[in-house]
Amino acid sequence: MTIKEDLAARLAVAPVVPLIAEDDPAIAVKTAKALQAGGLTVIEVVMRSDAALQGMEAIIAETEGLIVGAGTVLTREQAQAVQKAGSQFTVCPGLVDDIVEYCMGEDIPVYPGTMTAGEVQRAYALGLRDVKFFPATLAGGVPMLKALGSVFRDMRFMPTGGVSAANLPDFLALPHVLACGGSWLTPKESTHGGDFAAVEQLAREAVAIAGKSRNQG
Ligand SMILES: O=C[C@H](O)COP(=O)(O)O
């Protein structure tokens, strides 16, 4: 199975991608294990500090059965660095042709952030059919996604930014939503408070919501 097929299969079952933003590798690993225990096996580790790469490497080294990708990738060099560290997919806040072309050339699934019809169309022209929709709630939320989905009929979106258990059903009900991403599953008060059972519970809750609301809209 290719990584693209594996991702597609997992996101079909549990269309939720939790974000881990963590400087402490030990906490990053415990967070990833809690998410996995709760049923989420596709995890995005965001590169928002110098220590984040080590956290991602620790998760890859100390867990089994997860697909671990890198988020907040801003440059081609960073895309190369996360690939070298073992990242299996790449997420960017915006659309940068250079990164998209690099990842496509390496057969790495890449989800650049888009929020306008122009950005989605540029991603489409680059050959992408799956993109991130960011920042989802500020960029128009469900109504905007409905509008984009009506014209980009074979494009699928990963809304991220402002997604929570409360609005997850509305996003997942849309037929062209591939998955939702977000940090609501990894609250710092839980991860830094050592309450990984709470993280597991949030993951379970998201899986249950997804089971009820998937593509019902
Ligand atoms: O791309 C990542 C976003 O910053 C996640 O937003 P969130 O913290 O609202 O889930």
Give keywords.
217 residues; alpha/beta; TIM Barrel; four-stranded parallel β-sheet; three-stranded parallel β-sheet; 9 strands; globular; binds glyceraldehyde-3-phosphate; Aldolase_TIM; lyase; KDPG/KHG_AS_2; carbohydrate metabolism
What features would you describe in this structure?
The chain is α/β, with parallel strands linked by helices. It has one domain: TIM Barrel (Alpha-Beta Barrel). It has 10 helices and 9 strands. The chain has helices at residues 3-13, 25-37, 52-62, 76-84, 97-105, 117-125, 141-151, 168-172, 188-191, 196-213; strands spanning 16-20, 42-46, 67-71, 90-91, 110-111, 113-114, 130-133, 156-159, 180-182. The strands form 3 sheets. It has a 4-stranded parallel sheet with strand order 3-2-1-9. β2, α3 (52-62) and β3 form a beta-alpha-beta unit. α2 (25-37) packs across α3. The protein is globular and about 45 Å long. The model has no long low-confidence stretch (mean pLDDT 97). Residues 19, 71, 93, 134, 160-163, 182-184 line the site of glyceraldehyde-3-phosphate.
